[in-house]
Amino acid sequence: MSQTVEFEDALEERFLHHGGGEGGFVFQQVQNIMTDVPLENIVAMLDAVNA
Asked: Most CB within 10 Å of its CB: which of 7, 28, 40, 43?
């Protein structure tokens, strides 16, 4: 399993946990994205939020 797939799975788990699966999760990026975060993870995060 690739690091990006693992990241996407973790995002989905957190969205469902915090949002209850019914749209209760509000995504707000409140901190800067650190320089060592892979670009693929940033794209995966935005794709997951917009899905």
From this structure: 7
